[in-house]
Amino acid sequence: MTSSDPRRDGAVDSARSGDDGCEPAGTRDGPGPGEPEAPALEPIEKVVVVGTGFVGLPLALLLADRGKRVVGVDIDSNLVRAINEGTLHVDEAELQALLESDAVERNLEARTEPTDGDAFVVSVPTPLTEPTKSPDLSALEAALDSIRPHLEPGDLVNVESTVPPLTCAETVVPALEAAGLEPGAEIQLAHSPERILPGDVFAELVTNDRIIGGIDERSRRRAAALYEPFLEGRVYYTDLLSAELCKLVENTYRDVNVALANEFALIGEELDVDMSEVIDLANYHPRVDILQPGIGVGGHCLPIDPWFLNEVDPEHTNLITTARRINDKMPAVAARKVRRTLAPLADPTVVALGAAYKPNVDDRRNSPAERIVADLRADGYRVRHYDRHVDALAYDELRAVLERESPDVVVQFVPHEETVAALAEHRAWLDDAGIELLQFGVGNPIEP
Ligand SMILES: NC(=O)c1ccc[n+]([C@@H]2O[C@H](COP(=O)([O-])OP(=O)(O)OC[C@H]3O[C@@H](n4cnc5c(N)ncnc54)[C@H](O)[C@@H]3O)[C@@H](O)[C@H]2O)c1
Ligand SMILES: CC(=O)N[C@@H]1[C@@H](OP(=O)(O)OP(=O)(O)OC[C@H]2O[C@@H](n3ccc(=O)[nH]c3=O)[C@H](O)[C@@H]2O)O[C@H](CO)[C@@H](O)[C@@H]1O
After folding, report:
1. Looking at ligand 1, which atom is closest to the CA of residue 193?
2. 40 half-sphere exposure, CB direction, 13 A CA radius
3. Domain that holds residue 179
């Protein structure tokens, strides 16, 4: 595709400001020597964040903490009530502290319907339709519909959701035009995909560099101003399509590299070699940095985002879709391993530890551990499932759980720090009680 492609209408070339192509957020007050005076930006006092889930809520909290008036909009009325009544609990201490802070109580209001504002941030889910793996943009479209009556000339619309390439051009621009506002001319449009790492959200939101794609320079600068109250990372400007692609390329890179590690682990299983050790040794090479094999790739991003690239260019995504399939089969590989342990036992009871999609988080979306437990239960095995981080499966003392359940086998699927420590502490007791222990997890995928 060339820059004259009509689908990129409105996009401009990278507008980078510093010598190194980036600029610290909000630190450029005036033009450089010989540069024309940039027109002043309208201040952003009130921000409407549409979708106050994993991505939208932390942004709403940080902006409210820094004195902005923030309206968090979510169709989940229970979530809205919990935010307003201060009863919401989140799994990260810094975010929980913000939730309970006076500034947030003063400045953040949650609602089920949008209202007017200076800037609108869209952070709603963009899942896949199963089994076709095509993007489901219905939440994005509904969110755009819902803000339409509240949009006014001069407002900023900034999409943070991860979206398939060309979504801004083909879905967001028409939605804004339908509101009677020409993106770029009358209303500003930016796409700044969120890249925070679950488990370290607060720190990454503040310190990560931001990619800001905009339909024009003013949109990009205004979006940078939105993040300025808290952002310590640098801002890199680009066009809308490149910002969409950047997010997808990042997650695809990670997914493909986990698949490579998983494929190595499968070779190791075939040869009866501990591939984790081989990978550790290979990583001493100065130009090798292999990721860790695991029981599968879960979460809301890696299992989904590579398919967005496949959607726009199926011909050139062979490696990417093969990697997806390798990662998707890893839970079945782990389940097979558990079955081998259970097969000789008569009517065994299993305690399964870990339901989150990765260590030290409470998120269960696309969790490989849950898939394995479901498979084992479908086989008829009695599996008691626990996870320290997941409210519905939580427990206080691992030892008390084990004494109560009296299992034949304990399987650690997710190496949460506390789980690993507790199992180490009770190892001798497990041995004495004749309880077999299998420990899976990143770095120890196949060979418990
Ligand atoms: N979870 C992550 O690690 C992560 C990280 C970076 C980017 N993203 C991307 O950010 C986007 C949001 O993901 P998330 O993890 O925050 O999802 P989430 O499910 O945690 O939160 C989304 C929220 O949007 C609400 N919602 C749905 N439709 C709505 C509508 N029409 N109006 C208002 N609210 C609506 C839902 O009720 C939910 O509370 C996705 O595109 C995702 O791919 C996610
Ligand atoms: C490029 C990148 O870093 N993107 C991050 C990613 O966040 P994430 O939490 O989804 O990513 P991971 O931590 O990689 O976990 C995913 C799954 O892969 C398994 N895994 C991991 C490493 C490994 O060596 N072996 C494995 O098996 C792990 O157990 C888990 O199931 O997407 C977010 C949303 O877009 C981003 O915002 C965020 O920056």
Report:
1. 7
2. 3
3. 8-232
